[in-house]
């Protein structure tokens, strides 16, 4: 993402740095400046001529590259969230604004001094990130993804269990899960000393 303050040459170089990952690697610019967008395209056309990885990068740019011109940065943030890419580079006058405005991304790279290639190679942050829009619902890989987590539940108050039983019965019947409903019914009946309408079973008091 870039505004009119960005250096079009740097934007072009950074886009191609990501396009060279493979022939189906998207490299997308979202900008508020049509002039910047046009200059970036011109730079890319020139840079690709003698780029050693042009076989990949050129195909990726041709088939998956895009330049979107938007009216405002808020529109740019919204569009970037729709893409939900694994990494988003912010080349605007106030790059930290993206921290408040954006929600769906694997990692943000803020400002001209912080390129995505740093994340790939040297900066040290997690770069195993969600691809193909998965940033809408998950983040980067971390040790917690490999931990086995277990939970347990215990309702020790009989009145609370009776309340949950009644609630469970109503909710389950709305979904047509009669077995679930009855599992709640029996607790409500036992703990309140009432009968269940679907059985002649009685509970010992």
Please describe the biggest sheet, giving its number of strands, its sense, and whether it closes into a barrel. 2 strands, parallel
What's the end-to-end separation, in Å? 70 Å
Strand order of the largest sheet: 1-2
Shape: elongated
- DSSP summary: helix tally: 8
Radius of gyration: 28 Å
Structure classification:
mainly alpha
**Mean pLDDT level:** 88
Which percent bin holds the helix content?
Answer: 40-55%
Give me the count of strands. Answer: 4
User: What is the element string, with H for helices and E for strands?
Assistant: HEHHEHEHEHHH
What does this protein structure show overall?
This protein is mainly α. The protein is 44% helix and 8% strand. It has helices spanning 8-19, 34-47, 54-64, 73-83, 97-101, 116-121, 158-174, 178-192; strands at residues 28-31, 66-69, 87-90, 107-110. The strands form 2 sheets. It has a two-stranded parallel ribbon with strand order 1-2. Helix 5 links the parallel strand 3 (87-90) and strand 4. The chain is elongated. The mean pLDDT is 88.
Q: What can be said about this structure in brief?
A:
The chain has 205 residues and is mainly alpha-helical. Helices cover 44% and strands 8% of the residues.
Please name the defining characteristics of this protein.
205 residues, two-stranded parallel ribbon, 44% helix
List the helices and strands and how they pair.
Elements: H1 8-19, E1 28-31, H2 34-47, H3 54-64, E2 66-69, H4 73-83, E3 87-90, H5 97-101, E4 107-110, H6 116-121, H7 158-174, H8 178-192
Parallel strand pairs: 1-2, 3-4
Helix pairs in contact: 1-2, 1-3, 7-8
